[in-house]
Amino acid sequence: MQMHHAIPSVATHGTPTDSYAMKKLFAIAPFFFLAACEMPVSTPTSPRGPALPAITDDTCNANQYGSLIGQDVTALERVMILDLVRVIRPNQAVTMDFRPERINFNVGPAGAITSINCG
Q1: Using one digit for the tens of pLDDT, what is the confidence trace for 18-45?
Q2: 83: in domain
Q3: What is the domain-level CATH number for residue 92?
Q4: What is the pLDDT of residues 58-75, one digit of tens each?
């Protein structure tokens, strides 16, 4: 005598609730990535820090551009800089990689260069 037992099949994928959950996950995932981009980044433009690096820390020759501090950021258009340059505006997201040869021009809310540093 042969006995057949009915074992219910349990499928965990492809159900309407799983499909809904995946759609919901994919719908909100981009907001998490965008929120990460909006994180405020502290820049060395605070009044507590020096406007130029110390001579011993000046790995990018930033001190030679010290006369640009206080000028409008458009002053950079009149200066030929053949090195790596980055202009950092208030609340702008920047990469955290440190490049000692790169010159960072930090710009304040009014559009003037507030400090220059290497990195």
Answers
A1: 666 556 555 555 554 444 444 444 444 4
A2: yes
A3: 3.30.10.10
A4: 999 999 999 999 999 999
Residues 117, 84: Cα–Cα separation, whole Å: 12
Q: How many domains does the chain have?
A: 1
- Give the list of residues 6+ apart from residue 105 with CB closer than 8 angstroms, or none: 65, 68, 73, 76, 85, 86, 87, 88, 113, 116
Q: What is the pTM of this model?
A: 0.58
Nearest to 69 by CA among 21, 99, 112: 112
Distance CA 110, CA 119 (A): 23
Residues paired with residue 85 on neighbouring β-strands, in sequence order? 103
Alpha carbon separation from 107 to 11, 63, 65, 87, 112 (Å, rounded)? 57, 16, 14, 7, 5
Structural domain for 79, as ranges: 55-118
φ/ψ (deg, to 5) at 92: -80, 135
Nearest Cα to 103, choosing from 49, 75, 66, 77?
66
Residue found under tokens 């950079």: 76
Q: Which two tokens stand for residue 109?
A: 């809310």
